[in-house]
Design goal:
Length: 388
Amino acid sequence: MSALRPSSMTSPHKHFHRIAWLAVGLALCVIIFGAFVRLSNAGLSCPDWPTCYGKATWPTQAEEIATANAAFPERAVETRKAPLEQFHRHIAALLGVLVLSLAALAARHRRHGLPWVLSGSALVAASIPAYTGAHYVLSSALAGAGLALLFAAAVRWSNRDFARVSALTLGVIVIQAMLGMWTVTWLLKPIVVMAHLMGGLTMLSLLLWIAWRSTPNTALIAGNAGQLRRLSLIGLVLVALQIALGGWTSANYAALACGTHFPTCSGQWWPQTDFREAFVLWRGIGVDFEGGVLDGPARAAIQLTHRLFALLVAGHLGVLAWRLMRSPGLLAWGVALLIALLAQIGLGIGNVLLGLPLVVATLHTAGAALLLAILVTLLARLRPPQPI
């Protein structure tokens, strides 16, 4: 994506960039609200998917709650948490509609492009009633066929009018919906929870790239653009890995594995750890991971890994911020990156010292998304001067 020049790309519709920016804003809301739901321990408050106790909304009346409790005796209705989970699904579905709109607009000028995108989307949509009807093999086949069409389109088409990246983004949001389903049905399996977080941020990054590149006159011209883009790309990879570690920390309930001690861990510089158990990615299906299943040493290993890798990320982003501030016309971006980095470090430390308060923990996820957004923005907008 980053190799394409703005001059080589044309917007497929006059409102395409506006829809893209609306999708960016909604994607950010979905990610932050999803973190709030997860950190509120409401991730399993609707034990079925995509309905909530068999309803498109959630049980509210006494008789509805009684019926739901009888149908799902293993998880009684929590009237405070169920609306959070189902509302999160609803806004995620709305985001899916916006992404479908982008893909349809971008594909409509391609030969059979619009039928291709709509057919893939229809197959995915048909997989949902098949799933709720317990036809799991049929549901998987339909969803797989729909995804195959979308990704085949992404491979087949060029990106001169955003057709490739729009089809790819639509495929990513379908996978993200499937990860959301597995998060519930596989009882907060850590690898799925982490992948769900990464999928959401991947979707945000793709939408942000589309929005910047389809908006006219947004290039940041710099003589050292090539060097800054390389540093930004390395930073993007490092931040993505750190976010994955953060997702793994949260999914394994290891955020307070060191107690409320910082920079030490439980009062020690290097407590007892178990790295072998800490990073076992697959533990089978059928285990309820709510509350975590790892012992203290394994959780401490995860927490320490997250802290140590943060030093590498902070060092690299600090260098990038300094280079930006020394580049003509990019001072504001360097300052923004530095402030976002310092805020994220402060929020991470605050999570530990304050005992993981909900607001601080949610803002920590928002801070990760902000750092990612700044790096994607730099990759999308930085350009060398055009030869005269």
